[in-house]
Design brief:
It is a single chain. The chain is an alpha+beta fold and 400 residues long. It has 15 helices and 12 strands. It folds into 2 domains: 102 residues, 2-Layer Sandwich (Phosphorylase Kinase, domain 1); 281 residues, Alpha-Beta Complex (Aminoglycoside 3'-phosphotransferase, Chain: A, domain 2), CATH 3.90.1200. 53% of the residues lie in helices and 12% in strands. A 5-stranded antiparallel β-sheet has the order 1-2-3-7-6. The protein has a 3-stranded antiparallel β-sheet with strand order 8-10-11. Strand 4 and strand 5 form a beta hairpin. Helix 10 packs antiparallel against helix 11. It is globular.
Length: 400
């Protein structure tokens, strides 16, 4: 398989029907998009009419980390996941234009008019539709790929088809194992040293996290995005798109929900540095907390609506439905805590914190997120309503 570059990618495009169907006549340009860590990503643009597409190529390694070998099959998984998401939640994913299994190339809609949600939250922007949109996206993609809707045989076929062991192992290590032990991959802001030491010594926290590690490894509940953070969402005030599902597999629904919740909590904590004026900070944090609650409320309502309308008829129990939704909420707290730990004291850090140049201010912000994570993981069994989790955010305080 040839690795494309800014010259050969244009030659490649000319051999497809993209030129006629999407790009049109005129000179083309290719630009490597540096945001990608795993795949090689190009923006192909017609200089004359402005039409453009995003082309992604999977290499047998992470292109930013060549020593990290990865299966090229992840591009098939991304393509097939997007195809399924497009079937059930078409308004919330990019359009697919072209897929080439031999060259491991996927071409999708260019969302250049939208912003990455993580960066927009750092800038203090408000998006009135994102809670509704992400709630609907999660409800539809999770319900319609689960045993609640699919036949038993079809569901089991899909579990096999979406086996993604290498990328799942990345999550098992970086989210559920390494942050809770002394591991060379971990890093953190130095003022957090004493807090990290206490976390590493706290076997109760580690034991609870390992429960969620086991769920992650064994609970094939639905086709989950498996990396549903604010860096995988592009949006503006009216539109929301979920991107980059190459980590997708059949796992626990609450992992997607909790990961998204965690990244809202991270954005909430980071406002300690990004919104210096207390009044402005409090107003923005209030919006984040409201969006947090609305996301769950929309998700729950739309999920239950789908269950009522489109269930395969094998779950005729209102009591079971109530317990199912409560269990999802409880498990979302645990998975959310793991995501926060991973983003603060593990290997994979985020711009919310690492754009804060002053280490002491950064650590103070990170310690607020750790306050949330510690409380969520310790209370998850007792969670009864979404306000139990949002109240932890609202009551959060620096641990240093």
């Amino acid at each position: 398989m040839e690795q494309l570059n800014e010259r050969t990618v244009l030659e490649y495009v000319e051999k497809t029907d993209l030129r006629k169907s999407i790009l049109g006549d005129g000179k083309l340009s290719a630009q490597i998009i540096s945001e990608g860590n795993v795949n090689l990503i190009f923006r192909i643009c017609n200089i004359e009419n402005g039409n453009s597409v995003i082309l992604k190529q999977a290499l047998p390694y992470a292109w930013r980390y060549p020593d990290f070998k990865m299966p090229v099959d992840r591009q098939r998984i991304e393509y097939e996941t997007l195809s399924i998401e497009s079937q059930y939640a078409p308004d919330y994913v990019p359009k697919i234009y072209f897929y080439d299994n031999k060259s491991h190339v996927l071409v999708i809609e260019d969302l250049k008019e939208l912003k990455v949600m993580r960066e927009a939250l750092i800038d203090g922007e408000i998006f009135p539709k994102v809670a509704e949109h992400i709630g609907i996206f999660m409800a539809k993609t999770l319900f319609y790929t689960s045993d609640l809707y699919l036949s038993s045989g079809k569901k089991k076929e899909m579990v096999i088809n979406f086996s993604n062991p290498v990328l799942c192992k990345v999550q098992e290590d970086l989210v559920f194992t390494q942050p809770y032990i002394d591991h060379p991959n971990n890093k953190w802001s130095k003022p957090l040293d004493e807090i990290v030491k206490k976390i590493h010594q706290d076997d109760k926290i580690r034991g609870e996290i390992f429960y969620f590690k086991e769920l992650y490894m064994t609970k094939s509940q639905a086709l989950i995005h498996n990396d549903l953070h604010t860096g995988s969402i592009m949006l503006n005030e009216k539109t929301t798109k979920v991107i980059d599902p190459e980590f997708a597999f059949y796992g626990p629904m609450a992992h997607d929900i909790g990961t998204y919740f965690a990244n809202l909590a991270i954005a909430y904590a980071a406002q300690e540095a990004h919104r210096v004026e207390p009044g402005t900070r409090n107003v923005y944090r209030e919006w984040i907390a409201e969006s947090f609650e609305e996301t769950w409320n929309v998700f729950q309502q739309r999920f239950l609506n789908a269950w009522e309308k489109d269930s395969n008829g094998e779950w005729p129990s209102e009591s079971y439905r109530e317990n199912y939704m409560l269990r999802l909420l409880k498990e979302s707290a645990g998975f959310g805590a793991a995501e926060i730990f991973r983003r603060t004291i593990g290997m994979a850090h985020v711009h919310d914190f690492w754009t804060i140049k002053d280490e002491n201010i950064r650590a103070k912000s990170e310690s607020i997120a750790l306050y949330i994570a510690i409380n969520w993981i310790n209370m998850w069994k007792d969670v009864e309503k979404i306000q139990d989790l949002s109240q932890v955010m609202k009551n959060s305080k620096p641990l240093i």
